[in-house]
Amino acid sequence: MNPARDPLGGPRGFIVAIGGAVDTARGAAILRRFVSLCGGSDGSIAIVPTASLLADTGAHYEAVFRALGVGEARTVPFASRHDGECVDLLDALAQATGIFLTGGEQLRLTTTLGGTSAARLLRHLNAEGVPVAGTSAGASYLSEHMIAAGRGGGTPRVGSVSLAPGLGLTNRVVIDQHFRQRDRLGRLLAAVALNPFVVGTGLDEDTAVFIGPDEVMEVVGTKAVTIVDGSGLELASLGTARPRALVSLIGARVHVLVDGGTFDLRTGRASPGSGTQGGPTHIGRPVAADA
Hints:
Blueprint: E1 15-18, H1 29-37, E2 44-48, H2 57-67, E3 72-75, H3 87-94, E4 98-101, H4 106-113, H5 117-127, E5 132-135, H6 137-141, E6 145-150, E7 161-165, E8 173-176, H7 185-194, E9 199-203, E10 207-211, E11 216-221, E12 224-229, E13 235-236, E14 249-250, E15 253-258, E16 262-264, E17 270-271
Parallel strand pairs: 1-5, 2-3, 2-4, 4-5, 8-9
Antiparallel strand pairs: 1-10, 6-7, 9-12, 10-11, 11-16, 12-15, 13-14, 16-17
């Protein structure tokens, strides 16, 4: 699942994809669990605001994570491709027990970090057990296959989605964010039609999936996650349809999971867990930073 491998054969770190507009209040379930994975009061989170054009994004998340009890939160500003080779910045990244990629524009992440030492280090740190999280654009960038752009709407069309290489922490999912809020089902279906190997993962705002070393995704948050499993796809007309034409998909499976629900990337089995639409009822068992 993870292209980078730990030479010692240990479990990789969690991959945490957040659908944007995450609750940053003191009781926020998603960020509280991420802080726990990073070691809590003994942890150190490196914040990478590369996707954002706002000057205060890093400082904002530093304050958020400190308020949630992490020992240290530090912005690591990879603003250019030159920065991706900067020894001081790479050292700061390497010392972290957790990495957080902010929202913004995912193509800023690919064009700034793609092929740099920083991107290679992020993959190796996750392979060695360090949890890596991303919100909004940062979430899309986590996977090997990244949705770069596309049109809204509930029905897939030819050309409705554009894919680009992402960070590559996992090759088993393709992630879309702000999902129901921006009506993105059609473009996620189109992404799965282009490559049925991947599991389409549509994240609503203030909702996340925690992908563990066991390759099970757990939903945490106040809304829902839409899973599109193309492993049983019998037909996708995308390859023969005219430009901008509607696309038929036959055999794809769709699951909608709320807080506490799980999806096993190895077996394709979905479970509802104990969550309800009324709000979070289960945020998962805290896991040590090296789990």
